[in-house]
Amino acid sequence: MNSVSRLKAKLPTPLVRLADLAYNYWWSWTEDRVSLFSTIDPALWQSCGYNPVALLESVPDERLWQVAEDPHYLNRLLQLAQQFDAYMADYDTWAGRTAPELNYDRPIAYFSLEFGLHESLPVYAGGLGVLAGDYLKSASDLGVPLVGVGLLYRQGYFHQRLNRSGWQEDYYVDSPFEHMPLELVRDEFGQPVTVKVTIRQRIVRVQVWKIQVGRVELYLMDTNRSDNDPVDRWLTGHLYGGNQETRIAQELLLGIGGVRMLHSLDIDPMLYHLNDSHGAFALLEVAHLEMLHSGDGFGAVTERVRQRGVFTTHSPVSAVSNVFSVDLIESFFGDYWPRLGLSRDEFLSLGHRRPEDPWDFFSMTVLALRLTGRTNGVSQRHGDICREMWQGIYPNPEAGQGPIKAITNGVHARTWTAPLIMDLYSQHLGVDWSTKLADPALWTKVNAIPDDELWRRHSILKERLIAYTRSKTLTARQERGEAADDIKAVGRLLDPKVLTLGFARRFSPYKRGELLFYDLHRAIRILANPRMPIQIVFGGKAHPQDDEGKRIIQRITEWCRHPALRDRIAFIDDYDMYVAKLLVQGVDVWLNHPRRPEACGTSGQKVSLNGGLNCSILDGWWAEGYHPGGASPNGWVIGDTNPTDDPDSQTRRDAESLYEVIEHQIAPLYYQRDRSGLPRRWIAMMKASISSCGPRYNSDRMLADYVTQMYLPEAVTTAELVMASAMP
Ligand SMILES: *Cc1c(COP(=O)(O)O)cnc(C)c1O
After folding, report:
1. Which of 10, 709, 12, 43 has its CA nearest to residue 376?
2. Which pLDDT does position 102 carry in this prediction?
């Protein structure tokens, strides 16, 4: 009996379809997601980490029967189950019509070290993973035949808690795989399917879990088996934990293990798509299989490997990202390169940019660039940076070896848009709005939404964010044993009528999370201005080994306690997809001001889908998304377009610009109200933001671009043309 059947056997008969929904993440991007599982037991839903399988397993039978006799609930469940069945059975998809060359017999294998599908599956750390999650969801929606390949981490990414002095404490929690929407993959005898990988001269057995993401399957590998050495069982213990040795072992598992796993599942991918370079060892194993199959040598098969490889690079800087020392490469691959018929130097040169480069590092990005035929950066500007950065790799760009293309990232609209706003879109853009996301004509209908209705719903979402921030802050202060007065003060924290800024991202120094406090006096003057007050909500983790990032968080928490600012600044700890949704759906303005260059950035795109406004440096996606003209500008720009080389003076100028924009543009506009109390010009900007960003920065447009520019053999048509003519 498989897991779904086991769960069904436990449920009251009228509720059995809940098991099908619980085991497919499709539920997480339906409009019913708010109440489908939470109405069963809201407190348990929260304590289960919004994991529907754990909820249904642990809720008392008596409560299940109460739900099972509620005709309204049963009616909704029936409708949803029908919608789900129709979705799963629909083969008349965008990809089926536009790209029949792609088919499910030979899917695209999408390799990623992290996947951010939902807060209940903590195998993501940040933007790269969330992008991979959104990618799978759009692949499912558009019918692109794709399987995901990754690792299942026993304790996922670390959790964050701030102690009394504002210092980040990291801790890990075990994921109960047996009680999650996963299925261990078994062979016809009921035994777990395993593949073997040699790591540090030991055989490691890897088992495989399947996760259903709509129509797409995601396979995650895990080494926590009793027949493995105790040390090796922890190879898939943590995401981005451990040292470089753990990291190379994980990348070896992902790449080489991933290819072997697909082989043992009888999946013969048409293409191998690497989401960043962590999975690049896969290409070596593909070459190895090809050599065994054809009898040719490594040199002869590389062109065939390149034809099957697609590489999306995410780094905006070449030197530091994903490199291993040659010592590590030797100890992990010393017994592997002979299989490819390569000498040590030949093997090492695959990870070197130019012969004159220092020989002590092996770059995974260079390996991926060399062994894939199609490469792209993740925004138009990032594409330019990559072409310049990596031109030395391609000896002969005219011979079809380059250049690097650019496909700007987008976000999955139905995941990131608040159900209250999606409901408005259904009313004014049409019930099928989410199937035509790339159509600009659809989005101009946003202008038909009544101002007061858009404002009312936005205000509810802002209150929702404030309520959540207070409740999290209250718990945190109680757990830290803070003074009674400080605990009581939570009731005054943040005000729904006040202009609300948001800033949430990784606290790495280059993100410059404290730019707003560059000049504390000025910051206080602006935030605590009694006529035009401003408040801000922060969130985000610093990497466990990044003490500088932790110090930035600590300074922000000090400002949270500053007498002039204490009701105006909040820090939500343990930023994850759940917190991210509340933030991007509830803020008035989203700030983004990293040091340049930034690859793309996606959280601001989520904000725009919800009617929030972006205030960002002109880089990444905003360099192409920002429109000052038209009926109304769609956001704000800070800093100058031509940054200087001196980071300190650049930061001073960016801070200066941030203050100017907030004080003289954002705040006055927000507080300018008509007689009915509505900020009409602000609402016009909200609509301009939705209608200009909506059609472009969604993941359906992104997927269509990948299909037409990277996947199809004749990747020549532009996605705009295809989307306009073929989207339903
Ligand atoms: C969207 C998202 C990110 C990526 O945001 P950036 O703007 O690219 O920094 C990171 N973490 C979470 C939880 C997200 O939802």
Report:
1. 709
2. 94
